[in-house]
């Protein structure tokens, strides 16, 4: 790529820190110490030969890493193509190929992306707190996941024992104008399970002054990244009979979650290389709050660029 074009692109606003040429790294919004949890979790998902989808791709470092991990196909998405020039440049610089889809508001995704078929792996990170209706978003994306497929869901959460969504009143949680909701951790888990997504692994980074963008003194909040496996109704209905009945008969579920598409998805062969006792044979998965004290679950900072919001030319995952 022409040097002048690269230098011009480097001067633009960037969300991520990305190496464009050896030693030339863009100035993204994150500090080098801030963990990028979905990236760390995706490293355990065996993407070789798999169909992958990324929701809210910005400049595209997750799609790049999906492709570099050997995915058969990769689709990047965003509401509008606001990072198209930078994304196209990174495709060339990093020698990868993936498609981009403009999807508008993040609702009814199973209709918007129905021509894509199903996906073995979906990443939907940094999204649920940006939408009016998190349940509507999950209802739209769940039918796109193949049976036994993996989904990484990452969002801001409140570290408390309750089932609530807290509204970002007057920007008290974040001044960012597209931020509306923080889930409590148990609330996030129940929403995932309601849409037949069984949590099998997670990481959590407490909000701190290291990254002022999301830090509120005195607020026990953080960012959580959960790896979920697509569950069959027969595996989960006995856990919560009320939710099972709601999935069968509630007008909202029947109208917003395309059960016909969900049930018609083929079986995925994707495997997860994380914690052994939380693999596919554990149909109930884990309780997020109960496992918060597990060693290694909480990540305050990282020292390696490969675990941060930084993409270097040498990075493969």
Secondary structure elements and pairings:
Blueprint: H1 3-10, E1 17-21, E2 24-25, H2 37-42, E3 51-55, H3 61-68, E4 73-78, H4 84-94, E5 99-102, H5 109-112, E6 119-125, H6 134-141, E7 145-158, E8 165-167, E9 181-184, H7 185-194, E10 197-206, E11 221-230, H8 233-236, H9 241-249, H10 251-256, H11 259-264, E12 310-311
Parallel strand pairs: 1-12, 3-4, 3-6, 4-5, 6-7, 7-9
Antiparallel strand pairs: 1-2, 7-11, 8-9, 10-11
Detailed description of the structure:
The protein has 317 residues and is of the alpha/beta class. It has one domain: Vaccinia Virus protein VP39 (Rossmann fold). It is built from eleven helices and twelve strands. The strands form two sheets. Strands 3, 4, 5, 6, 7, 8, 9, 10 and 11 form a nine-stranded mixed β-sheet that branches. The chain has a three-stranded mixed β-sheet with strand order 2-1-12, with no helix packed on it. The chain is globular and about 60 Å long. The two termini are 23 Å apart.
